[in-house]
Every structure is written in structure tokens, then in C-alpha cells.
Amino acid sequence: MIVAVDCSVFGFDGQHLKILLIKRGFEPCVEEWSLMGGFVQPDESADEAANRVLKTLTGLSGLYLEQLQTYTKVDRDPIERTVSIAFFALIDIHQYEQRLNDQFHAEWFKLDEIPDLIFDHPQMVQTARQKLRYKAALHPLLFELLPQRFTLPLLQSLFEDVYETKFDKGNFSRKIISTGMLIKQKEKDRAGSKKGRFIISWIKNITGRTFTPS
Description:
Helices cover 27% and strands 29% of the residues. It is of the alpha+beta class.
């Protein structure tokens, strides 16, 4: 029996939450779309394997990574019995290395435009998306998808896309600011607005805040 890890890697391009997929490089299902994954080596844990896989794909370390569940269906891989431990990861899409994209034939897809995926990877993506929504209501996970400095409209756009709904601008701002996790910077982002929008950053070491924006 082989043990593998598969990672749903989410990013935000400023308008849409996206997932990073690759073209599988070996049989079975070679050249079909897949989550980024790999086999757990004898000298590493599942978490270590997932971090290694992400480092190989993105060139980045220290990404937010969380284990989801284990998939053990006997015939999930038609070639050999393979147990997969699924993870999801969050990445600032603008830090992603394009050269690695070329190397692995990786592409970002909107969640409503995901192509057919191999094996049980569609279920993994669905589970990851549900877990992201649940955790984001309790913890400031979605900030991991943004640069260190951003605007409130950008943050609201991210929440709206994740939850597939619209939030009242005033209520959203009040609720987010009330967490005490944001720091308003002196400068403004004047792109697309004459008055400009204040740039903010977030404090990573504050915990125990409920983050439901509605």
C-alpha cells in the first residue's frame, strides 16, 4: 500500500478565489488535471510530505497548510492501493513563481470553472472549500490569501467570493474593524478612486476573534 498527500492550493487574484491545478505527469491518467500531490517518503510525516510538495510547486515555504481527511477507498487508484491524506493550503497568488507554473504545467482556475479531475480529487476540492468557509468564519484565515498591505474593498471582495454572497459595505467595514486586527496605514491607494482608499495591514498574532463578516 502506498501513502500519498494531495493539496488543494487556493489563491485570490483580486476578484476571484482560485485553485491551482497541474497536469499529471505519469500513468494512470497522465496529462489529466490533478491536485498537486506526491508520495510520503519513509523518513517523513504526512505534514512534512505536504510541505515538501508545496515547496516544490510554489517555491514558497511557511504557507498556511491544514490537513483535511484521509481517503481510503480501495479502488480510488486503478493501478495500486493508494491511501491519500488531503490538505488545503492558502497562498498569496502574487508571490507564486511563474517559472514553476511552466515546469509543472500548472494553472489557476476559478472554482466554478474547474476542469474534470482525476480519481476522487473533486471530492477533496469540495471538502477543502467547505472547510475554508467554516474556518474563515472563526479565524482570520483569508488574510493568508492577501498581501501584507491591502484595502478594505479588496478584503470585502475576497469574503464575497468565498461565501458567494454580497455584504453591505458599511456593516462589513464595522464588523471587520471591530476585531481589532487591522492597522490603518498613512498612505492611500488611489487607483480607481479620486479620494483614494486607505491601505491596511493585519496583526497576525491576535487570536480568539470571531470573523463572521455578516
